[in-house]
């Protein structure tokens, strides 16, 4: 079974992409989603967040939510807003945010490769979120939210993707956050074959974002395989929707931390405790860490630059050397008493896209007591964790720009 293969994508009809494209289903609250669909009857949020079409307070996991998603997608098909390509295709997808550009391939990725860890993971998943995606896939008989995969940059693949973008794109729109989304359709069999062969030569792919979507696709495939006496391995349920980018084009932002209290300490005692593992220097400006093991801290109206004693950094451990781990091990757990950041309600996580001002505001408003700004996790570190078969701490990476939902979906025939 090949690592990736082309597929006949379900996508907006010509000229309809701007009406359809929507942010990923899991980056906004229900209230924000309801606001986003105002005046946008063809927004893909009607499929990915169908509770927006049901009364407020509806359980987002209720059967009628998934039924509404199916009805909305069928309506988009019936009205010609969505159309399906007549034969298998690859799609080249380019994202541009400010001066940053990344170009990847939309493909169907092998569930067997995922199950065998050739498509490597680095996060735990939550059963309730997996169950939700399983029900969504089954209700739609399609995968609509792409899994964000990464490959180690390879000159042959990078060159083929770049060459594809020399033609006029089939889609060229600006969406949320003023991000430009461009899509090229690759129909030529020879070009498809060369891309398939080049990806097959790779040792592995890596899940950057979309662990719940890929895990759900694996579960759906297992269930359908078990119920299909004539299973061959060629069925579309053996693959999942993915967009695959080279690792050196990724933009990872920090995932910062906010803590509600000082665990019974006053500010002076807290700073004294922090000064044991860290060098603590007040800063007249907000601190944006310039290197690993350097962190910013905001407390009582003052920013501090924290620099960890290098002897405390376990360089040979791909998980323990991450900045999110260093902060947890040397400060959040021993000083602030938060042992399990996955479940402790005293800690909150803020994506770096909101900036240092967003962190400072939460503390100034009294919502939180202290904030920590981190240096972003590097893509090389993410891959090292995955290669070691380890799991990253929660909220370690924030990828920008985000993919759009609705530009290409994978129907399960």
Please give the structural blueprint.
Blueprint: E1 4-5, E2 10-12, H1 17-20, H2 30-36, H3 45-48, H4 63-78, E3 82-84, E4 90-97, E5 100-110, H5 111-115, E6 119-120, H6 127-140, E7 142-143, E8 147-151, H7 155-164, E9 171-175, E10 179-186, H8 189-200, E11 205-209, H9 211-227, E12 239-246, E13 252-253, E14 255-259, H10 267-274, E15 278-283, E16 294-299, E17 302-308, H11 323-332, E18 347-351, H12 355-364, E19 370-373, H13 379-387, E20 398-399, E21 410-411
Parallel strand pairs: 6-11, 8-12
Antiparallel strand pairs: 1-5, 2-3, 4-5, 4-10, 5-12, 7-21, 8-11, 9-10, 13-20, 14-18, 14-19, 15-17, 16-17, 16-19
Helix pairs in contact: 4-6, 6-9
- Unreliable runs: none
Report the helical percentage. Answer: 25-40%
Instruction: Return the structural class.
Output: alpha+beta
| Average pLDDT level | 96
Count of separate structural domains: 2
Largest sheet entry? 9 strands, mixed
What is the terminal separation in angstroms? 18 Å
Q: Sum up the overall morphology in one term.
A: globular
Q: Which band does the percent of strand residues land in? A: 15-25%
Number of strands: 21
Radius of gyration: 23 Å
Please work out how many helical segments DSSP would assign. 13
């Amino acid at each position: 079974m090949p690592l990736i293969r082309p597929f006949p994508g379900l996508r907006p009809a010509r000229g309809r992409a701007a009406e359809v494209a929507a942010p990923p289903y899991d980056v906004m609250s229900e209230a924000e989603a309801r606001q986003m669909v105002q005046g946008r009857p063809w927004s893909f949020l009607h499929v990915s967040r169908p509770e927006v079409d049901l009364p407020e307070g509806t359980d987002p996991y209720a059967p009628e939510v998934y039924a509404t998603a199916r009805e909305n997608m069928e309506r988009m098909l019936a009205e010609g807003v969505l159309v399906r390509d007549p034969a298998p295709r690859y799609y080249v997808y380019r994202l541009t945010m400010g001066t940053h550009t990344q170009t990847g391939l939309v493909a169907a990725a092998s569930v067997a490769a995922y199950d065998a860890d050739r498509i490597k993971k680095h996060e735990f998943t939550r059963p309730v979120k997996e169950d939700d995606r399983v029900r969504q896939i089954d209700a739609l008989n399609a995968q609509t939210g792409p899994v964000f995969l990464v490959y180690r940059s390879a000159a042959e693949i990078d060159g083929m993707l770049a060459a594809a973008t020399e033609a006029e794109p089939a889609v060229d729109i600006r969406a949320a956050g003023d991000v430009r989304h461009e899509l090229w359709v690759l129909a030529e069999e020879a070009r498809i074959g060369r891309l398939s062969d080049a990806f097959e030569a790779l040792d592995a792919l890596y899940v950057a974002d979309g662990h719940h979507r890929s895990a759900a696709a694996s579960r759906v495939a297992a269930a359908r395989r078990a119920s299909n006496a004539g299973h061959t391995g060629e069925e579309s349920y053996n693959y999942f929707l993915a967009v695959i980018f080279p690792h050196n084009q990724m933009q990872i932002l920090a995932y910062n931390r906010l803590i509600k209290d000082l665990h019974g300490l006053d500010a002076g005692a807290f700073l004294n405790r922090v000064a044991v593992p860290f060098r603590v220097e007040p800063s007249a400006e907000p601190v944006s860490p310039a290197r690993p093991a350097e962190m910013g801290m905001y407390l009582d109206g003052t920013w501090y630059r924290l620099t960890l004693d290098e002897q405390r950094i376990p360089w040979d451990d791909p998980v323990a050397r991450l900045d999110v781990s260093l902060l947890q091990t040397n400060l959040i757990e021993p000083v602030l008493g938060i042992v399990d950041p996955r479940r402790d309600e005293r800690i909150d996580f803020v994506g770096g896209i909101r900036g240092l001002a967003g962190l400072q505001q939460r503390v100034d408003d009294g919502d939180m007591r202290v904030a920590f700004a981190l240096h972003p996790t590097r893509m090389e570190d993410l891959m090292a964790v995955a290669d070691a078969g380890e799991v990253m701490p929660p909220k370690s990476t924030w990828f920008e720009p985000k993919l759009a939902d609705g530009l290409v979906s994978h129907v399960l025939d």
